[in-house]
Amino acid sequence: EWLEGKLPMPDYENIILSNILREEESNMVHSTFFYPKYNGSQFIVDRLAEGLSIKRNIELFKIANEEKGFDKIIYTGDIRIIPPKWVNILEENGIKAAELKALHANGTSTLFCETDDTDISWLYIPENFIRAHRIIYTGNFSNTNNKGSNRKTCVVEFSGKVTFEEMVKEISLLPGNLTPLASNYEPNSYVVQTHSTRALIASVKAVLETQGIYLLGRFAEWEYYNMDKAMEAAFKLKEKLENPLLPNKSSLD
Description:
By secondary structure, this protein is α+β, with helices and mostly antiparallel strands. It is built from eight helices and seven strands; from the N terminus they run ααβααββββαβαβαα. The protein has helices at residues 12-20, 42-49, 84-92, 97-101, 164-170, 197-209, 218-221, 227-241; strands spanning 73-75, 104-115, 122-124, 132-136, 152-159, 179-192, 213-215. The strands form two sheets. Strands 3-4-5-2-6 form a five-stranded antiparallel β-sheet, with helices on one face. The radius of gyration is 22 Å and the shape is globular.
């Protein structure tokens, strides 16, 4: 269920026939894709932001108040750290906030590197000789990703927190004569679901939506969204919000 919509999901009959006929997978995810020529994925964000009034880097003390409430609130943050009043609403409706706080996410350490030329887009490493699990050859997606370098660039990903020194030592085991340029650690990259996660989030959504609050995005909905699935979820929510039968006002502190 976690991978539905992200990877090909053949049925048993197709699996057996493909093995008998020695057919290779022809519907591999991301076998073809579009990529911006300039500024990477930030280009998409910038284009979507055109014509919008977006306030950034503002500390919020209140979401709304009794006198001036928003018509609706779309929450795209981490569901584990929602405002206290929302927690109280959930508790009053039988949903334990401790269950939300217990949700687990996995972090990612990345090392930006120079590499030799290759025609590969992604290289997955499902072996235990190294702690890295994949290389994304971003320099092949657009020449502008190689600015300032005479070589191609790539990003080596490690699961969990790995120090710069450890990553540099590890990449000596990988192909491409990798040269490290910069590193980053993101403590929350991938949501981890259990058998009860979707039922829990569905209950949270049902309660919050009665107050005009809607969850959207990987960490708000606790779904392993790719960018395309996240945008699809946004379009679906837009259609839902245009339904006049939905609650109309949120007045939560």
